[in-house]
Structures are given as structure tokens and as C-alpha cells.
Amino acid sequence: MSDPAARTAAEPRRPETSTPPADTRGRPVSRRVPALVLFLLAPLVGELLLGNLPLGSPSTLAALPVLTLLYGGGAVLIREVAVRARRGRPTVVLLALAYGLIEEGLVTQSLFNPSYATLDLHGYGIVPGLGASAPWALFVLSIHSVWSIVVPIVLVETLYPCRRATPWLGRPGLALMSALYLLGALAMGVATLFAEWFGAGPGRLAGVAVLAALLVTAALVLPRRDRAGGGGRAPHPPAALAAAALAGGSALFLLYHFGASMRMLPAGAVTAAMLVLLVGTAAAVLGESRRAGWQPRHEFALAAGAILVYAWAGWLVQIGQYGAHPVGVAVQCFLVAAAGGLLLAGRRRLAALPTGRTVDGR
């Protein structure tokens, strides 16, 4: 996806004034408001809309605080680091990938546990020496990077365009958010350890930590690019981008479902297809975002298409894992409707902006 702050990379940072920037209706918006919304939205998209928890069970309510600390804290921190470093979406994506590695490789260790939760990956695409299933690793790291982190960030920045290119937290807020994220990771790790009684071993854990550190380093040394530097044809229309995101995300879910879940496809073929899909999608989005005329509405279209993937895939996951229980079905219906309302709100915000600009003129 494109850079939200790249156009202002060479400009001096505007100081915070006593009067907060206004939204599209002229109402002042505190910088803490979008931070709080992102903090709450990330777990709702990353876990609940996906249907990854038994929505009719009290255990889900008990897990929500920990998931909010982990997902929400991670999303806000990643967004703040990228904006403060005056870098754009490539940095966000690499940091999101590091986040996924930390969660699935260090916290829950699901990358190395073929029996994690409802998984049954024994003998399916296990990479010798690593003990990780290649289809599962590609799938879970992709959904964490895109749906748990990048998509919520894009949606919240769309809802609050006046705060799109500015930090949302001061130093005390960053320190608090870091502590909340670490607390969530610790709580999730301890809960998973007692539930699974599985340990990946120090060698694998060290490897994940090194790889995550390399991703963070790479994210922060990316050049500060000017989003307007592209040329050639204009980006594809937002509707086409949304359809492409829906198709690509749906293909990823179907590959995993018919492969790792149902064992109807060989692991090698699923792994190869996923790699082609993910690399091709990343290259296509990067190429589009570098073209002249790339605007927030194009970015929002990609996020909207991704949300629509979870809108249907959540049913597949929820019913497939937990059955069609009335409460779970009702909650899933509410989540899908809420996601639709969120997309409509984002579309209205974009329609109220001058073409190609946010309300603060950026």
C-alpha cells in the first residue's frame, strides 16, 4: 500500500496547536481519538470478524482484554513508529510482518506447533529442520500483516483524515502503549503455554527473534520516498482495486482451507501457489502506489476489499470450527454489519475531501 506521510517527508513537522485539526464537518479531533479507535479496532478485525473465536462462549469475553492489548497495542505502535520515522506503507508492512513473527513464533509458538488450538498440521508441508508447516506459516503471517495491522491502520486514517499524517501519541503515550503491548504478549504467552504445554526450543525462538529484528531494521532504513514521484498511467480505479483485493484475499483463504484444513490439495502446490499470490500481490500494489495520482481513496479501496474477505471467510472459520450456534451466528451477523457500516463511513469521509488531498491539505 502507499505512503500516508511520504508527501510530507521533506517538510518540517507542524507543531500541535491549542486547537486540534478539524474533521470533514469542522469538528475538532484530538489526536488520541484515532489512537483509541485503532487500539479497539485491530482485535475486532484481526480475531472477531475472522470468526477465530467461539463468539457464543464466555471464554471469548475473557480473552478480549488480552487480545486488545496485543493487537491494539501492536497496531498503534507500528503506526506511530512509521509516522514518526516519516516513512510509509512499506515500513508499516515490514513492521507488521515482524509483529506476526513475534506473535506466532515467540508468543503462541503456533509456527512450530502442528497441534496448536484447532490445527492439525502433522505431516502437512512441514519444513525439515524448522518443524513449521509452510502453508500455515505463509497464511498466518499474511493475515496478521495485512488484516490485523495494515487494514485497521488504513481504515482509521481514512476515518480521521485530519490526523492522517501526524503522530497520535506523545512520549508518555508511546511508553504506555509499549507497556500494554508487552503485557498483552506476556499474558497471551503464559495462557498459551498452560493451554498447549508446547515449547519450540531455544534455537527456533532465537531464529524468530533474529528474523523479526532484521525486519524491523529493514523497515526503518527504507528510503523516504515522495509518493508523487511516479509516472505513466494513472492507478486503477478504486472499484477495480477493491475487487482485486477481494479476489486475492479470497484465493489465499481458499488455498489454505482446501489445502491445510481439508487436505484436498498437496502441500507443495499450496505453498507454491501462496508464494506466487503473495509476491505478485505485493509487487502489484507497490507498483500501483508509485503511480502519479495515487490517493487515499485507492488505499481505502484495497482495505475495503480485504475487509470483505473477512466478511465471508469469518463464516467459514466460525461455523467450521465452532458450529452454527445461534449466539455465534448472531454475533457474526452483527460484526459483518458493523464492518459494512465502517466501510460506508470511510467512503463518506473520502467523498467529503478535495480530490487527492486530506482535510489538512496534505
UniProtKB/TrEMBL annotation:
<protein>
    <recommendedName>
        <fullName>DUF998 domain-containing protein</fullName>
    </recommendedName>
</protein>
<keyword id="KW-0812">Transmembrane</keyword>
<feature type="transmembrane region" description="Helical">
    <location>
        <begin position="136"/>
        <end position="162"/>
    </location>
</feature>
<feature type="transmembrane region" description="Helical">
    <location>
        <begin position="264"/>
        <end position="287"/>
    </location>
</feature>
<keyword id="KW-0472">Membrane</keyword>
<feature type="transmembrane region" description="Helical">
    <location>
        <begin position="323"/>
        <end position="345"/>
    </location>
</feature>
<feature type="transmembrane region" description="Helical">
    <location>
        <begin position="35"/>
        <end position="55"/>
    </location>
</feature>
<feature type="transmembrane region" description="Helical">
    <location>
        <begin position="239"/>
        <end position="258"/>
    </location>
</feature>
<feature type="transmembrane region" description="Helical">
    <location>
        <begin position="174"/>
        <end position="199"/>
    </location>
</feature>
<feature type="transmembrane region" description="Helical">
    <location>
        <begin position="299"/>
        <end position="317"/>
    </location>
</feature>
<feature type="transmembrane region" description="Helical">
    <location>
        <begin position="61"/>
        <end position="79"/>
    </location>
</feature>
<feature type="transmembrane region" description="Helical">
    <location>
        <begin position="91"/>
        <end position="112"/>
    </location>
</feature>
<keyword id="KW-1133">Transmembrane helix</keyword>
<feature type="transmembrane region" description="Helical">
    <location>
        <begin position="205"/>
        <end position="223"/>
    </location>
</feature>
<feature type="region of interest" description="Disordered">
    <location>
        <begin position="1"/>
        <end position="28"/>
    </location>
</feature>
